[in-house]
Amino acid sequence: MKRLFAVLPVIFFLMTVMLSAQEINSVEFRQEGTYRFGKDILNFNVQSRKGAPYDEQIVNEDIKRLYNTGFFADIRSETKKRADGNVDLIFHVVPKDIVRSVKFEGNEKYPSEKLYEHMNLAIGAPLNDKRLSETINALRDFYAAEGLNDVTVSYTHTRHVEGGINVVFKIRENLKMVLNSVTFQGVKAFSQSDLSERIANQKSMFSWVPFLNMGLLKKRELDKDIIRLREAYFSKGYLDFQVKQVKMNTVEGKPERVDLVFEIDEGKPYVVGEVSVRGGVRFSDKDLLKKVKLVPGKPFSSDLERLSVEKLEEDYSPLGYIDFQAKPVRVPDYRTHKVDVVFEITEGLPYKVREVFISGNRWTKDHMIRRELAIAPGDAVDKERIKASRSRLMGMGYFHKVDAVSVNSPEVGTKDIDIKVEEKNFLHARIGGGYSDSDGLAGMIELTHSNMDILDPKNYFTGGGQRARLLALVGTDNMDFEADFTEPWLFGIPLRWDVSGYMRNVVYDDWEEQRIGFTTSLTKRIFDDFTTISGGYTFEHVRVHKMDKWLSPELRSQRGSDFVGRIHFTIDRDTRDSALNPTSGYNVNLLTSFSSRALGGSHDYMRLELKGSNYISFFDKMLILSMGAKVGMIGMLDDWDGDVPLYERYFLGGGDSIRGFPYRSIGPVDSFKDNMGGNFMYLFTAELSHPIWRFIRGAAFVDVGGATDFRKNPFSHVNVGVGYGLRIQLPAVNAPIKLDLAYPVLNNQPGLKSKLRFHFNMGFALF
Predict the structure, then answer these.
(1) pLDDT in tens, 104-139
(2) What is the set of domains in the chain, with CATH numbers?
């Protein structure tokens, strides 16, 4: 008996060694039912692989991941031991019932065809609980966006005669509730208007317009509005803040209008007491404390606390500490209104990237996505690089959604990067138009293919990231036909090639200009993602025609046709946060071009231009200051004192240059007092915009500049216009509207009267 007990540990040890040495000989999926999933999808959701050590914990995690896909009703694993000691791993999977049909019941206001647009279930595939839940939420969100906040959406199913189920969504619709007023009781630290701007439930003066759906009560946003208010107060140190009650009082006699009241207890603001960091290993607590932005004795701010966490992550993220956490723990003293803050550090372990997996791209080729990534196998698992990769992919314009996350991998010390994309429609057709005081009324048709591959007919010439566009624009003052093509990665490197052919005709007050030609250029990023250098060639035929007969001989001598052969070089740096509505950052651009007979042109001349703009925001982007400048000159190469062609000269004035002056009214005049355009221009502008109401902003501005002759006094004849305007961006219609009222406080343009002038610009696409 004693011998038996003596050998038991040895036997146990040998069994452990044998089990630990087991490898997976094969991984098999046995699917029940009529529906079959592809092996790639099943393999993607498991980490167990042929040749890897068998680990029961990993197998259990694989089963969980398969369950989490939402497609399976039952999953179990089975192992078969082989003679060589290895095992065959078998997953038995039972898909859920196949969806045979989807119906909607109870929807009276919106037809089923409209609701089908928000369905995320696939007919003919197994029922997916996750997609079912997403569909229910999407239907609720749709009704909420239409103002039906009390809608209820439930789900049931019936058996189909041929097997599977019929899914039925039961919907109960309700009336829209419109906000009559939104008030905050017990408020001193903020103004009523400031708090109103921070929440989703906002009163609207346009609530009476049906299709805008503005000023509606959003019950599902109320809890989030309380959180938004709390964040606002925490940013000023009001840690005792609470919303005691939210009242929704129906207006008497108006059952669809409601007064929304937030009863608030602000409390008192806290100041920072002691600040400390603990838990650092890779870096000392003392060094990490230098990153913290909270200062003892200063007012507490949750914004500074959040910024401190970001600063603490800066040293760890590039080293692969993907699990790093810096948790701020507040210890408030309610008597002294001081709060001690301890940043508890959990470093985790550094990881390297093993593999990068890409999914969801039906048309876009894998290599197109991978070439934009800021992270690759072998790199440290850096959160910032993962974020940068997501931003780059979104910036390509091909995807509605990009998810980029790190996931566990079977190799110790490594993680995989899982990138899932949701592609946009790559074919676009737009019909629209616009009107401005400069360009008149115009209509537009545009066809665009935003993800073309001209070398891949098997994939319907799609998926290579190339862009092609056809544009036709016809208006009272201009006509424009264009065909454009862009290859963003020429020769497989990040070198953008653009080529464009065009025919344009512009009607000015005293003549017309027609241009027919093509231009091509190469653009390359240098230094970083914000700086580019570009070079190209343009050839065009230019005709100045339909010139008024009462113009001076100097101007009438410019009538006729010329050829332009031009090479051009540009350096551009753009750090703006948005190209359409920037609130911060700057843009600087240097352009030089040479037109020559040797390049196919009729004249020899050069152009040099420098322009820039800077944007600064104040008070959480409430006020936005924009400042811009542009200086340009053009001169003949063979005769510096000669006159450059009329179609290349500078004309200022109008809504896009110096406001308060008519369009193209500023420049040197001839013997008939007609503006003949300058060979030198300068323009300085400053604008301060502020919010008025939601999508309406006001703007005070000043413009300074002139178009002159650099051979004389280039900065003579300064003109200054000042004014005020509105910037309107309608949410339901893609219609940016710019309205400006300006007056020329300094007018050095001969023959031009000073008076108040209105500038109007609106452009939109209907479809």
Answers:
(1) 988 877 888 888 888 888 887 788 888 888 898 998
(2) 2-95 (3.10.20.310), 99-172 (3.10.20.310), 178-265 (3.10.20.310), 271-346 (3.10.20.310), 352-423 (3.10.20.310), 432-765 (2.40.160.50)
User: Around Cβ 628, how many Cβ atoms within 10 Å?
Assistant: 17
What is the C-alpha to C-alpha distance for residues 362 and 341, in angstroms, rounded to an integer? 49
Q: What was the pLDDT predicted at 17?
A: 47
DSSP 259-299: EEEEEEE-----EEEEEEEE--SSS-HHHHHTT----TTSB
Question: Alpha-carbon distance 634 to 640, whole Å?
Answer: 10
- Give the bridge partners for 472, in sequence order: 445, 481
Higher pLDDT, 699 or 33: 699
Query: Nearest to residue 256, comparing CAs of 174, 138, 366, 326?
Result: 174
* 570, 609 Cβ separation under 8 angstroms: no
Question: Rounded CA gap, 656 and 439, in Å?
Answer: 11
pLDDT of residue 713: 81
Cα separation, 209 vs 204, whole angstroms:
10
Work out the end-to-end distance of the chain between its first and last CA atoms, rounded to an integer number of angstroms.
89
Cβ neighbours, 10 Å, residue 248: 14
Structure tokens, 727: 């910037």
pTM (whole model) above 0.85: no
* Range 527-537 burial, b when 16+ CB lie within 10 A, else e: eeeeebebebe
Does residue 69 register a pLDDT over 90? no
Of the candidates 633, 611, 625, the residue with the CA atom closest to the CA atom of residue 708? 633
